[in-house]
């Protein structure tokens, strides 16, 4: 490896040497080769594109679907004196325009983009004029329909090579099966196979999967026993609050996190956990991507993940410091049925998808023959309730509409709170006189905003808290109370994705949906769900099962997972019982009853089982109902 790369590593990151495979990957990129790198969670993927980009003239374009990761990496690069910018949903057109200009004419070294941005002709055209030295594709498994998190906008990435044919791709992912590895390279048009794979083995992780009726009690006991910092993953937002409350009631400093919280609140919660002010964060899978906290001692799943790929990534957030850590699944038999039911709900039929499109266009009042390029804030829960549609099929119908090029759905962005008075000014004055506690807030709203009787206006609760000199929570409480009295409508800040229509509206009966793709995708997801269930039910070693799933055929027993510990205990107990049987029979022949009573290890059933095994192996003999030791052994 060149001195330049080591100097850059030392100068900007303070490391004296690279981690395994980083050097080889960097050399491949510097040589201009399209490269696929598989490094497990915490394996240092970002170094693999950041170092070579700094070694070369020009700008590195990083494509990632994770806005939180974009912001985090841009912030870190800037702190290190490296010029970096990001373009993501929610930015104004003028803001995007200035950012792209700086990339063309300025000294920006890294431009982070969401894949949806590549649908924009303006963005693609400006990239053409940039001096690009590398295309880094993060979460590269998203390009493959065989992967666990297929995202249609990733299919646009191959077009980057049309803009800069000689610039190499560096595709990066933490999880990919053998089929996905092949598919990534094909989708990105690699001229020849070029893959660097670090073993998926994390030998400091003691994987556990425990069938448990009392999940809450077991979870609390595990956390108390293990100590340290951890994550508890649940399936929905409501559960994050409920579980956090249970932990707090059991003396465990905890908080909850989900994508529906305002951005500022999410940052505060994440920072509290990162700095260990909070021991345990209870979260949906929206939490954790791009977060590098080394001292996580446990990751507990209270619901079954829908694939081993997802589980490996989430579990891999434990033990990044190399010390022993525990990824634990707590499950009940009914959880497997829930997983299968969710799978079936995730694949609506074509008429349902067409109907969803029809309702979607009506929802946003789009006329036939219009709508191309329209971008709107989209709350899928409100939409589903309005048209009385089941939520899970609707969310997946949107994915299939996205895959067939009818729309794109971006990662969630924060939508500010909205407010509107539902009574006229005369009635409102009576309220101010009758309910003094609302008077100051109502006056502040009327002084700050116009049109609040006619339209919803965007409000900032923190701004009013500062003006009135009261806590933020008190402002929210008053606003909710006004709504409860039907004086006003208050819609708290939510994280809603942005939806963009890519084509003009057509009659839904003529809407093309690729039913063959849906059938194939259903099969893939079915295999992934079965893989998860097999991991729970049929593993001989948890770590070995994960490694085999990802194509590592010669994996041995890890000796630290729950199954290995049980097997070791059983083998140890067997050896002790066998030794006791030998010592007892060497003192003289015994009846089965007397022999079993002379033993101290194991249950009666286990002792009898081992006696029978030894009898079958002719290690002991049975004559006239008396057992004796075969002296040949």
UniProtKB/TrEMBL annotation:
Coiled-coil intervals: none
InterPro entries: DEAD/DEAH_box_helicase_dom, DNA_helicase_ATP-dep_RecQ, Helicase_ATP-bd, Helicase_C-like, P-loop_NTPase, RecQ_Zn-bd, WH-like_DNA-bd_sf
Similarity-based family: Belongs to the helicase family. RecQ subfamily.
Residues of the Helicase ATP-binding domain: 26-194
GO biological process: DNA recombination; DNA repair
Keyword Hydrolase: yes
Source organism (scientific name): Sphingobacterium detergens
Isomerase in keyword set: yes
Catalytic reaction(s) noted: Couples ATP hydrolysis with the unwinding of duplex DNA by translocating in the 3'-5' direction
Protein EC: 5.6.2.4
One Pfam family per UniProt: Helicase_C
GO MF entry, a single one: four-way junction helicase activity
Name the UniProt record assigns to this protein: ATP-dependent DNA helicase RecQ
Residue span, Helicase C-terminal domain: 218-358
Record lineage: Bacteria, Pseudomonadati, Bacteroidota, Sphingobacteriia, Sphingobacteriales
Keywords: ATP-binding, DNA-binding, Helicase, Hydrolase, Isomerase, Metal-binding, Nucleotide-binding
Gene Ontology cellular component annotations, sorted alphabetically: bacterial nucleoid; cytoplasm; replisome
Highest taxon of the lineage: Bacteria
Cross-referenced CDD domains: DEXHc_RecQ, SF2_C_RecQ
Top-level EC class as recorded in UniProt: isomerase
């Amino acid at each position: 490896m060149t001195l330049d790369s080591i100097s850059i590593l030392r100068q900007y990151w303070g490391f004296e040497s690279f981690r395994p495979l980083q050097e080889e990957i960097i050399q491949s990129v510097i040589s201009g080769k399209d490269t696929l790198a598989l490094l497990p969670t915490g394996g240092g993927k970002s170094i693999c594109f950041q170092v070579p980009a700094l070694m070369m003239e020009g700008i590195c374009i990083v494509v990632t679907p994770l806005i939180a990761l974009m912001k985090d990496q841009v912030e870190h690069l800037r702190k290190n004196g490296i010029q970096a910018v990001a373009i993501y949903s929610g930015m104004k057109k003028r803001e995007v325009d200035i950012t792209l200009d700086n990339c063309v004419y300025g000294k920006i070294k890294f431009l982070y983009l969401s894949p949806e941005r590549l649908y924009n002709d303006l963005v693609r055209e400006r990239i053409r004029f940039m001096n690009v030295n590398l295309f880094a594709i993060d979460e590269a498994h998203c390009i493959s329909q065989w992967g666990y998190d297929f995202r249609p906008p990733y299919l646009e990435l191959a077009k980057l090579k049309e803009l800069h044919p000689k610039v190499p791709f560096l595709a990066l992912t933490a999880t990919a099966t053998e089929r996905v590895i092949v598919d990534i390279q094909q989708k990105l048009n690699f001229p020849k196979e070029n893959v660097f794979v670090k073993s998926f083995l994390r030998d400091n992780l003691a994987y556990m999967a425990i069938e448990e009726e009392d999940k809450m009690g077991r979870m609390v006991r595990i956390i108390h026993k293990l100590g340290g910092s951890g994550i508890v993953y649940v399936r929905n937002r409501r559960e994050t609050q409920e579980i956090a409350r249970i932990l707090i009631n059991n003396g465990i400093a905890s908080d909850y996190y989900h994508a529906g919280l305002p951005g500022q609140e999410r940052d505060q919660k994440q920072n509290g956990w990162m700095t260990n002010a909070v021991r345990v964060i209870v979260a949906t899978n929206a939490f954790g991507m791009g977060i590098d906290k080394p001292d996580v001692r446990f990751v507990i799943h209270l619901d079954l993940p829908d694939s081993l790929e997802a589980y490996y990534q989430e579990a891999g957030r434990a033990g990044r410091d190399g010390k022993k850590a525990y990824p634990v699944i707590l499950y009940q038999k009914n959880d497997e049925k829930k997983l299968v039911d969710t799978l079936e709900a995730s694949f609506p039929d074509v008429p349902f998808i067409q109907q969803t499109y029809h309702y979607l266009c009506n929802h946003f009042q789009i006329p036939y023959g219009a709508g191309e390029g329209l971008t709107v804030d989209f709350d899928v829960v409100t939409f589903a309730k309005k048209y009385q549609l089941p939520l899970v099929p609707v969310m997946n119908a949107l994915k299939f509409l996205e895959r067939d090029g009818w729309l794109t759905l971006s990662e969630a962005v924060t939508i500010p709170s909205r407010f509107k008075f539902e009574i006229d000014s005369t009635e409102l004055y009576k309220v101010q006189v009758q309910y003094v506690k609302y008077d100051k807030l109502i006056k502040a709203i009327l002084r700050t905003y116009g049109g609040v009787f006619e339209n919803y206006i965007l409000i900032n609760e923190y701004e009013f808290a500062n003006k009135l000199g009261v806590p933020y929570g008190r402002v929210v409480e008053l606003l909710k109370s006004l709504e409860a009295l039907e004086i006003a409508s208050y819609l708290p800040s939510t994280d809603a994705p942005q939806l963009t229509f890519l084509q003009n509206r057509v009659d839904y009966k003529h809407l093309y949906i690729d039913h063959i793709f849906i059938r194939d995708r259903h099969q893939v997801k079915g295999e992934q769900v079965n893989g998860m269930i097999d991991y729970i039910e049929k593993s001989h070693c948890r770590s070995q099962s994960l490694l085999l799933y990802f194509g590592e055929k010669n994996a041995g027993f890890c000796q630290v997972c729950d199954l290995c510990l049980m097997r070791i205990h059983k083998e140890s107990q067997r050896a002790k019982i066998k030794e006791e049987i030998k010592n007892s029979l060497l003192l003289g022949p015994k009846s089965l009853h007397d022999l079993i009573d002379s033993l101290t290890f194991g249950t009666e059933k286990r002792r009898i089982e081992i006696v029978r095994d030894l009898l079958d192996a002719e290690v002991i003999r049975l004559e006239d109902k008396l057992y004796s030791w075969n002296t040949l052994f």
